[in-house]
Amino acid sequence: MDEIRIGLFGLGLRGLAWLRGLQRLDNYRITAIGDIFPGLHQRGLDQLENSNGVKTYADYDDFLANPDIDAVALTVRCEQQGAMAAMALEAGKHVNAEVPAAHTMEDCWRIVVATERSGLVYQLAEQQRYAGYFGGWQKLVKEGKLGHIVYFEGEYISYKMGEPASRKRYHQDWDTGEMVASEDLHKYPNAKPNWRHQMPPAHYFVHDLSPILMILDDRVTTVTGMGTRRQSYAHPELKRADIQVGLMKTTKDTVVRMAQGATQMIAPNRDHHHFQMIGTKGSVESGRSWDSPHKMWLADSQMHGPATIDWRYERTDAPKEAVRSGHFGMDYYVHVAFRDAILHNKPLEFDVYKAMDTAAPAILTADSIDRGSEPIEVPDFTPGKHRPHGTWPEVSR
Amino acid sequence: MDEIRIGVFGLGHRGIHWIRVLDRIDGYRITAVGDIFPLQERALAEISNSEGVESYSSYEDMLADPNIDAIALCVRCEEQGAMAARALEAGKHVNSEVPAAHTMEDLWRIVAAQEKTGLVYMLAEQMRYSGFITGWRDLVQQGRLGHVGYVEGEYFSRKSPHRYYQDPKTGEFIDIPDLANHPDAQPTWLHKMPPIHYLCHDLSAMLSILDDRVVKVTGMGTRPQSYLDDAIKRADIQVALLHTEKDTVMRMACGWTLGRSRETRGHRYQLIASHGTLETNPHMDELQSMWLADSQMHDVARVDWRQERTDAPSPSPSEAAALAEIKPDYIGGRRTTGYSIPSIDYIVHSNFREAVLGEKPLEFDVYKAMDTAAPAILAADSIEQGSHPIDVPDFHPDDSRPSGQLPKGI
Does the complex come out with an ipTM higher than 0.85? Predict the structure, then answer.
């Protein structure tokens, strides 16, 4: 096998970006595209340089039955996202799934079990972990320059209601799949709130928790959460919390604070992601705005004040193929890692267990909020005596 | 009554600083100083006229002194709250250093004693009087930011290692590297105190901005043994999540053994609202930032807000000159007496003076003080209980707890 025949399901904006990206990389051939809304199929085909022989599907089961698909690129945004990934594995397809991995713990386990039983590749396509600055931060931690990391915070605070396209993110015409802005709802009698509207913001911790856990080489054991009411104060027409915050504890004794919100009005120049890592011997912090530098202070390095460092999302060692791949070049690494795992048996660094270590604390933070901030234990997804490889844990089924 | 005869108990670095301030402003006369350790001589030396000033080593004896109208409580010990309540019960007004207490029972005892006696209890938390806090509060209370969804406050630093052990006879603090020469040295309360008990400065300021109170708290922290130094048996950091009555989520954090530069601000705040954001400058050489959605701002505004107030209240000319003389003491490059922004420390003492003399009621009354202290105590309790959320009581009297009484079960 020297080529991956890939079928992409989910023709929203991310799906279209994936189609463009996959065509720029060697060893991928797009053989099918799909979406439950047939009206979106043509725009998928329009992204392809050569759409001859590319099949279109509105039914996911039919899509999975296609023998000309080796791997599924799953770019849906729906509550069933995790189950759909597991179904693909169970149908004998490798899976490269957009974030977040799943929205229920049962689906997380189903993905793990299906991966173990099938021996196929499951990758969560979280690209922020490939950012240049996380490489720099990870090196500092591995070398022990910061001492014991006692606190790490990450957040994804954005405001996407200011842009016309983004205002359409929360409602969808159920006949055509067309996204509908709140102010246009009266023109679309069949428009309904979509999953993004209903999804707890905490479920989207994944972009920030993924690099944090990578840097710490650690996993979360306990979570608790708090959030504002389930109706935006900034946009009362949206029935979702303005912000949800998770507090987490890791096996190595680091406290992690995560926050996610997309409806509060922030300055356009504010970087949506912000990270701060504090150790006993030093600390690093990303800039608050897109153009502000990182700061680093090392206790044992004769620094009177924090150093200003030009760390960026872009990697200094990025190959030219990466540069235009999306998300400051980070999208490239996701597709290359997936390709190399399938074609060259190169083990995924971000394997299914690490992926679930990222997804589960997010789901459980939202559960904690629903339960009045009760702390919830996060399971260890790796197999062992308590759960033999390829079997379900006792409590999850 | 036009002068408050005040007794200062607790003669550590903050006590000495208080004596210097109280000795220089109008309306106060220091009539007694006390400490369980023999530190009275150095305290007396700070008073411009120490003739007739009594020295005490017993708190009971000090409370029995009829020449004391008010107690300035500058101790740092687990019994701090009980000591404040005892002073009220003994008929003395109380101006107490932060934090107010370390148990919920002591908080209730302070509230009930204050209500029964009608005396003034003040928590001497000064951050709430900072210039920038007033600026932020005005914006929030004018509705310029809309609903505040999220607030962060923290007190992070890298304290020098001299406050964790103390000679039980002399009260002298012992540096950790010098412990081998002091076999009798004992861990101080600062050593044992859960770090999150000290979120009072940050929570006080943020609640004053929001005009709100915390209803639920949960917390997490690192192990109760520092990773920085084996001799420090306390967590390096503790973090609390708090939810307020008006539906704001707050993250408060405290830690003093952290790898943070002195050029990074120890107290940092961030406020994210439906229609704007505010943030303190992370580093000393930067300015605070403000963004208002309704003001045609393409980027955040950089604002020169500081702890210092632009309308620093009005010490009299003689007070101002005297206060300007107060400088922190340094030994070997380390600050050894309390230091704060003089203008906001002044407000604490000025407000207490006005309340005791009957000129003006306290803005930061006993209920607001307890609203600041209780979430801190309960955050530490939550950490001990595996992060279980804990409801924060409302300290105001009602049908279930008439004024002057303890709640059932306390």
Answer: yes
Look up the CATH number of domain B131-303: 3.30.360.10
Question: Which uninterrupted H or E stretch holds B187?
Answer: strand B186-187
Q: Where in chain A is the domain with CATH 3.30.360.10?
A: 129-323
CA–CA distance, A48 with A20 (Å, rounded to integer): 7
Interface of A with B in 203-232 (CB under 8 A): 222, 224-229, 232
Q: Tens digit of pLDDT for each residue in B335-384?
A: 444 445 557 888 899 999 999 999 999 999 999 999 999 999 999 999 99
Name the token pair of B406.
């303890």
Q: Which residues contact B70 (CB under 8 A, 6 or more apart)?
A: B4, B5, B6, B7, B92, B93, B94, B95, B120, B352, B356
Tell which phi-psi region holds residue B307, choosing left (phi > 0), alpha (psi between -120 and 50) or beta: alpha
Rounded average pLDDT over B167-177: 90
Strand order in the sheet with B173-174: B173-174, B165-166, B186-187
Q: What's chain A's Rg over C-alpha atoms? A: 21
Q: Is A288 on the interface with B (CB under 8 A)?
A: yes
Of A195 and B56, more confident: B56
Rounded to two decimals, the pTM is 0.94
Alpha-carbon gap, residue A206 to A358, rounded angstroms:
6
B305/B156 Cα distance (integer angstroms): 20
Q: Which of B11, B8, B35 is nearest to B22 (CA)?
A: B8
Instruction: Provide the phi-psi class of B230: left if phi over 0, else alpha when psi is between -120 and 50, else beta.
Output: alpha
Contact criterion met (CB < 8 Å) for A243 and B150: yes
| Distance of alpha carbon B84 from alpha carbon B63, whole angstroms | 11
Q: Domain limits of chain B? A: 4-126+314-363, 131-303
DSSP string, B137-169: HHHHHTTTT-SEEEEEEEEE-B--TTSSEE-TT
The CATH class that applies to domain A4-128+326-349 reads alpha beta
Distance CA A71, CA A62 (A): 14
Q: Does residue A230 surpass a pLDDT of 70?
A: yes
Q: Which fold has domain B4-126+314-363?
A: Rossmann fold (3.40.50)
Is the Cβ of B179 closer than 8 Å to some Cβ of chain A? no
Residue spans of alpha helices (H) in B285-341 = 317-324
Q: Which residues of B touch A280 (CB under 8 A)?
A: 226-228, 236, 257-259
Q: Do residue A297 and residue B300 have CB atoms under 8 angstroms apart?
A: no
Chain B, window 295-334: residues with a beta carbon less than 8 angstroms from a chain A beta carbon:
297-300
Helix (H) or strand (E) holding B71: strand B70-73
In terms of Cβ atoms closer than 10 Å to its own Cβ (0-12, 13-18, 19+), residue B362 is: middle
Which token pair is B48? 């411009």
Domain boundaries A129-323, CATH class: alpha beta
Buried b (16+ CB within 10 A) or exposed e, B104-123: bbbbbbbbbbbbebebbbbb
Output the CA–CA distances (angstroms, integers) from residue B14 to A286, A352, B10, B251, in the order listed.
36, 55, 8, 27
Q: Do B4-126+314-363 and B131-303 show the same overall fold? A: no
The single-letter code of the amino acid at A251 is T
How are the residues of chain B apportioned to helix, strand and coil, as percentages rounded to the nearest 5? 30, 25, 45
Q: Can you tell me the distance from the alpha carbon of A235 to that of B63, in angstroms, rounded to the nearest whole number?
A: 57
Where does residue A46 fall: left (phi above 0), alpha (psi -120 to 50 degrees), or beta otherwise?
A: alpha
| Per-residue pLDDT reduced to its tens digit, B270-313 | 999 999 999 999 988 899 999 999 999 999 999 999 988 887 66
Sequence ranges of chain A with CATH classification 3.40.50.720:
4-128+326-349
Given a contact cutoff of 8 angstroms between Cβ atoms, the answer to whether A31 and A69 are in contact is yes
